[in-house]
């Protein structure tokens, strides 16, 4: 594990140097993936790294695992409460659509969830730009493969150090980096609505997706779920489609 952590630390340093940036910023949720990135950027840039805690519907101090994560890593952090901004924006969007069109109740939960992820992304980019830092993503291999992220929300970042790691490898790295045990033990959750857990929503466990990505044989039903998610989210792993070049003479 030490070798891989050293390798990622040096990789972060070189990517940020190549970009002529000064350091690195990450959104800190209190979950496992961001906790690992917190520790990696602190190693790579001890004096030029930053965590941003951005609750919606909670106070910053109530994001206990997030605060514990940054404090234990001794990472400089900002707490930016997005509750008011989110509620105002969501109310304005809904009000406007209700006045002029049709508000679709069935799409409300997911639409609101993705708006939260994109508000966090916009906030993080604004903060990072102030310091001339790059935004570091927290996506891991099972999330990337299944498209389990908000397009241009938490899926938007300048560099993605955990992309090749299974959830199990992220957890092992977290233990090596001495991430708080309370964070390591939390069930993975996007926390975009009450009671949400990744595995309930995905319909398959991380253990199973990890095994599939390692090339092991898994239950056919689970394989179908994973491949279905992969296919449906293909557009998230590519640049937006553009039409073919205009033919010469047009
Ligand atoms: N074929 C296609 N080609 C090009 N674009 C296409 C498309 N199909 C949909 N789209 C576009 O993509 C949008 C749907 O994608 P997207 O906006 O991402 O939304 P969607 O994939 O529907 O939802 C995001 C999922 O990620 C989960 N999530 C989000 C954030 C954080 C975490 C976490 O683990 O912390 C998890 C969330 O719970 C939910 O299950 C559509 O509204 C449409 O604009
Ligand atoms: N309240 C929050 N404050 C700051 N950033 C957040 C917050 N919630 C989510 N994020 C950002 O969105 C990312 C995606 O969330 P995701 O749940 O996939 O990862 P995680 O919470 O770090 O780990 P886990 O998947 O184990 O819950 C987080 O890693 C973090 O960068
Ligand atoms: Mg989470």
Description:
This protein is α/β, with parallel strands linked by helices. It is 51% helix and 6% strand. It has helices spanning 2-18, 32-44, 64-73, 83-100, 108-131, 141-146, 167-176, 181-184, 198-202, 206-213, 220-232; strands at residues 23-27, 49-53, 77-79, 133-135. A four-stranded parallel β-sheet has the order 3-2-1-4, with helices on both faces. Strand 1, helix 2 and strand 2 form a beta-alpha-beta unit. Helix 1 (2-18) packs across helix 2 (32-44) and helix 2 (32-44) packs across helix 7. The chain is globular, with a radius of gyration of 19 Å. Nicotinic acid adenine dinucleotide is lined by residues 110, 113-114, 117, 148-151, 153-154, 190, 192, 198, 201, 235.
Brief write-up:
The chain has about 250 residues and is α/β, with parallel strands linked by helices. It is built from 11 helices and 4 strands. α2 (about 30-45) links the parallel β1 and β2 (about 50-55).
Q: What about the largest sheet?
A: 4 strands, parallel
Principal-axes geometry comes out as globular
Neighbour order of strands in the largest sheet: 3-2-1-4
Whole-angstrom Rg: 19 Å
What is the element layout, followed by pairings?
Layout: H1 2-18, E1 23-27, H2 32-44, E2 49-53, H3 64-73, E3 77-79, H4 83-100, H5 108-131, E4 133-135, H6 141-146, H7 167-176, H8 181-184, H9 198-202, H10 206-213, H11 220-232
Parallel strand pairs: 1-2, 1-4, 2-3
The structure holds nicotinic acid adenine dinucleotide (DND), adenosine-5'-triphosphate (ATP) and magnesium ion.
Nicotinic acid adenine dinucleotide is lined by residues 110, 113-114, 117, 148-151, 153-154, 190, 192, 198, 201, 235.
């Amino acid at each position: 594990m030490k070798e891989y952590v050293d390798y990622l630390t040096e990789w972060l340093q070189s990517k940020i140097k190549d970009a002529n940036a000064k350091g690195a910023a990450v959104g800190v949720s209190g979950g496992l993936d961001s906790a690992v990135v917190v520790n990696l950027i602190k190693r790579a840039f001890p004096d030029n790294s930053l965590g941003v805690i951005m609750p919606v519907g909670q106070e910053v101090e109530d994001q206990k695992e997030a605060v514990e994560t940054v404090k234990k890593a001794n990472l400089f952090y900002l707490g930016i409460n997005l509750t008011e901004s989110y509620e105002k924006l969501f109310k304005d969007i809904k009000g406007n659509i209700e006045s002029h069109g049709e508000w679709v109740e069935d799409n409300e939960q997911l639409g609101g969830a993705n708006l939260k992820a994109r508000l966090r992304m916009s906030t993080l980019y604004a903060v990072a730009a102030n310091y001339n830092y790059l935004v570091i993503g927290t996506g891991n291999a099972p999330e990337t493969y299944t498209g389990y992220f908000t397009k241009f929300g938490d899926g938007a970042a300048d560099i993605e150090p955990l992309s090749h790691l299974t959830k199990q490898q992220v957890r092992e790295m977290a233990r090596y980096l001495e991430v708080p045990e309370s964070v390591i033990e939390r069930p993975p959750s996007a926390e975009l609505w009450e009671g949400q857990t990744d595995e309930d929503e995905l319909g398959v466990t991380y253990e199973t997706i990890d095994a599939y990505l390692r090339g092991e044989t898994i239950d056919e039903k689970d394989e179908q779920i994973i491949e279905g998610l992969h296919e449906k989210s293909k557009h998230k792993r590519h640049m937006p489609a553009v039409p073919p070049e205009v033919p010469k003479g047009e």
